[in-house]
Specification:
By secondary structure, this protein is an alpha+beta fold. It has eleven helices and 13 strands. Strands 1-2-3-5-4 form a five-stranded antiparallel β-sheet. The protein has a three-stranded antiparallel β-sheet with strand order 6-8-9, with helices on one face. The longest helix is centred in the first third of the chain and has 22 residues. The protein starts with a helix and ends in a 9-residue tail after the last strand.
Length: 310
Amino acid sequence: MKAKKDREDDYNRRLLSFLNHKWHMQLYGIHEIRKGKWKVYNQQEAYFLKRYNSLDSFTHQHKLIRLLTNDHFPFVIPFHPYHDHTGPIQLKEDIMGVTYWLEGDSIHYDDIKDRLQAHWVIKQFHLYSHRYLEEFPTLQEFDLLKKWKRRWNAFYQTRNELLPYMPTTVLHTLLRWGEMAIELLEENRATFTSYPKSMIHGDIAHHNFLRSTNHALFVIDFDLMTKGPSIIDDIQFANRILPHMGWSTNQLFQFPPWHIIRMLRSSISACCILLIYTVNGFVLLLARPKPNLFFGEIYLFSPFISITSE
């Protein structure tokens, strides 16, 4: 453990020295918040330093934030102007970027005000970003059906490994639910593909919203950004908040912004399926619409815990 910490400390010292050489900003402190994320500071200001998965990931996020800030979108944190002229910070294979440090805390989905404000910010993001789609010709468009087929196949390939841990009937039931979901998605694909397209955030977790000390709300971490129907973010947001609402579909449909879900409920005559994913697994929401009435059942697909978000 000590050897590992010594290596990390050495890396941080070299990183700070590199930043001073590159920036000429007289930084004197660096604090690693978590792996790949640091707070760096000088006597006047503090900054957030982040390691990106790839050059493309940095380039796309820097471009998106720049477009939003140029359009006076007030809910994102700008990159340091350094990047406008020189691109990312590169230390050997590491691609890094710097934004301004924001003093604040994550929101909590237990709080209805936080839920309402977070969803409003995301809808504003969709409203602004739909005009940027042509600015990202190389960014792949999100395909919900393709994603779920890939995940179902991965789960199917591990079925024999799961058998010792659950009854065969349960495993077969889970597999059949997945098949049903994919079949219904295929039948109703137009419901998703015809919805207005925009940039998609892709990770609507509570910790990706920060409230500053003056109570302003910011959305951060666009690592999973893509293009596609804006309803994709809404579906994931529904999944994120449902555990904090006692898994109550009634509460979900009373939630003011959820005209989207009400639209889905009425537009699919036979059965509406929403496939909703989390880092920890699958949630399958089966909805059988009837006039003025909604019957919903929610199942937690815990066996899918090994399937990671992509």
